[in-house]
# Entry
Amino acid sequence: NAGVTQTPKFQVLKTGQSMTLQCAQDMNHNSMYWYRQDPGMGLRLIYYSASEGTTDKGEVPNGYNVSRLNKREFSLRLESAAPSQTSVYFCASSEGLGGSYEQYFGPGTRLTVT
Amino acid sequence: QKEVEQDPGPLSVPEGAIVSLNCTYSNSAFQYFMWYRQYSRKGPELLMYTYSSGNKEDGRFTAQVDKSSKYISLFIRDSQPSDSATYLCAMSKGGADGLTFGKGTHLIIQP
# Structure
């Protein structure tokens, strides 16, 4: 039982390049989330998926897209990376759909955009 | 005013002391309250999860929620050097929308 897994662990991109961050959970959770964590800013919600087939914007969605591939997997795409997107990205999941709202986090992806 | 306020610290205490960590919030719609522990370069780890006002205890950890004052606390008894980490408070209105986090308090337990 791995919980929430994220790939890659580290990535360096040049401005304008694109990439997809992958997230998977094996807890049969309905809801999945993407956050970014910046020094002095705390964790901020980028996008979330309440259930398979739905996605919604969070607090800081600009420059990102997401795909809920199936119940297990939720990916985050940067189409044209910018230095302001240098951050640590965390994926999380929760039971949702009337169940518990506590969220469980993955180990994170450290992204640097030069 | 930020929705959730948390003193970033650092908070340094000697081993064995009782630690008190706190957050205040402004949105009275928050009903679910969580505390996460985050070690350097790791993901947040859920410590405590409470609903509405009251206390919850788990081992050395006690979470308190006072909705009338919009104030939540985490107490750590018999603190250990391994408790040194950043502690994040988080809260939710319920439903599937995301958590709102404090900025975290950096805690140092001195051996």
